[in-house]
Backbone:
């Protein structure tokens, strides 16, 4: 077991180059803590344990980066390993939230529209009906039902032309991180038209020697069956799930031995625009309007709006993002921000580089992002860079109101009835990577705590397991260290 610990004196030197860039803003103008006045003739209090000792006692393997900054004094209070670039995991989403608020603005909303080409004569649309996605990552089946109802209410009872599906508002991404396993619901595709976080619900129930199965697009009020994603049960031991793209269909197989009596799970959708189109067509058919086979278009033709569904205002959408940490939401928001910043949609990697450049300009040093969610472990940022970023006045004022309260817990992970301090922060977790960054509002402090054992993570990725051996205990130990550090810094 190895640790990288950078002592306080070294940290001060490492921070000084970063501090000089932002000194004009009053941030980290001097990285050294102010000296305390000496006392004479008094009994000295018991020495506080060193930060290095606290980290060593936590039993967290790999590298630890921990830094805390005091806004009131303009000082970095203490830190260890703060100059080591590590994967921030979902702490990345805090950067994405600040990026989106600055570029898109608080009034921004994703919009999904039904549109038409041609005139409506005696209730029949003589041209094409268009379902136009705006990239909304929170669009669900109930929303498509609402749009279909409003198309009917507009007086349309038939369509002579084509059924077009516009998905060019955001670039198509087959999966957020190709190093992850195919069946993980938090690693779906992205397009300009997304539905149910681009997940399909797979459900099974034993019947005799076989199983009854369903693949549906369920939300609160509806659960229409879909054909764009199909499942076959096969006799094998491993893998539990296997995926293959067959034409315009997501073809899944599952090992019969893994199913048991009954159950369900969400699987990622790799054809999100066609998935949404099929569900919309189902609702239109229920209103007596039969649509043709959906045709995807990357450019929205000249047309007239029939109706629209407006998503959440950006601050509320970001608050949900930071609470539930949904990867698709982070990526769609980041891609939308870059599209506005760059004058048009850009691919995921280019968009991540654009956000990295934006952040680098703010803190005066280079960082590396490969996405907007933190799912990709090739992203690299140091704890001190994160603190410098979060402590920016504009970033702080944007994030504090929307970050999730972080609760202290007991040894059994139950929330303590009496909280020792107020904390608002973003957590991040990958196998053998555990991160936390945010604010102690009552004390005016900003912190970042990164823990990563990248050697063990690589071994875990090669194993192909969802949760490799040792990953959960590692996460628990790292979380205990986080709590110990926050208690220390809250005083």
Residues:
């Amino acid at each position: 077991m190895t640790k990288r610990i950078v002592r306080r004196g070294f940290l001060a030197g490492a921070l000084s180059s970063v501090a000089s860039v932002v000194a004009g803003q009053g941030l980290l103008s001097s990285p050294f803590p102010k000296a305390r006045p000496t006392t004479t003739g008094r009994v000295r209090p018991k020495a506080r344990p060193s930060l290095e000792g606290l980290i060593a006692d936590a039993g967290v393997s790999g590298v630890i980066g921990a830094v805390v900054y005091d806004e009131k004094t303009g000082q970095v209070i203490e830190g260890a390993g703060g100059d080591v670039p590590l994967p921030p995991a979902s702490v990345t989403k805090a950067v994405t939230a600040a990026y989106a608020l600055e570029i898109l603005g608080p009034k921004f909303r994703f919009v999904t529209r039904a549109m038409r080409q041609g005139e409506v004569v005696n209730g029949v649309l003589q041209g094409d009906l268009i379902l136009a996605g705006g990239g909304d990552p929170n669009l669900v089946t109930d929303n498509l039902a609402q749009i279909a109802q409003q198309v009917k209410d507009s007086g349309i009872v038939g369509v002579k032309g084509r059924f077009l599906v516009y998905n060019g508002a955001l670039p198509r991404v087959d999966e957020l991180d190709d190093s992850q396993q195919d069946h993980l619901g938090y690693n779906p595709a992205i397009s300009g038209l997304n539905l149910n976080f681009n997940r399909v619900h797979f459900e099974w129930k034993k019947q005799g020697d076989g199983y009854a199965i369903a693949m549906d697009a369920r939300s609160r009020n509806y659960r229409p069956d879909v054909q764009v994603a199909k499942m076959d049960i096969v006799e094998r031991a491993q893998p539990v799930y296997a995926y293959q793209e067959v034409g315009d269909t997501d073809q899944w197989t599952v090992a019969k031995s893994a199913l048991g009596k009954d159950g369900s799970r969400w699987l990622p959708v790799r054809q999100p625009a066609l998935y949404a189109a099929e569900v919309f067509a189902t609702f239109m058919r229920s209103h007596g309007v039969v649509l043709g086979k959906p045709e995807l278009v990357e450019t929205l033709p000249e047309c007239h709006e029939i109706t629209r569904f407006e998503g959440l205002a950006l601050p509320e959408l970001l608050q949900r993002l930071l609470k539930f940490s949904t990867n698709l939401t982070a990526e769609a928001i980041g891609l939308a921000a870059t599209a506005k910043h760059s004058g048009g949609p850009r691919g995921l990697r280019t968009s991540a580089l654009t956000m990295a450049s934006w952040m680098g300009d703010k803190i005066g040093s280079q960082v590396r992002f490969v996405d907007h969610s933190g799912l990709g472990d090739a992203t690299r940022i140091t704890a001190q860079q994160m603190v410098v970023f979060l402590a920016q006045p504009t970033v702080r004022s944007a994030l504090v109101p929307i970050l999730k309260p972080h609760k202290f817990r007991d040894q059994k992970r139950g929330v303590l009835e009496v909280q020792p301090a107020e904390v608002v922060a973003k957590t991040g977790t990958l196998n053998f990577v555990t991160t936390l960054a945010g604010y102690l509002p009552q004390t005016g402090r900003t912190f970042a705590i990164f823990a990563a054992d990248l050697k063990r993570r690589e071994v875990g990725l090669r194993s192909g397991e969802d949760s490799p051996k040792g990953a959960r205990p590692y996460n628990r130990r790292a979380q205990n260290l986080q709590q110990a550090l926050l208690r220390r810094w809250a005083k």
In short: The chain has a mean pLDDT of 90. The radius of gyration is 26 Å. The longest strand covers residues 199-207. The first helix runs from residue 8 to 22.
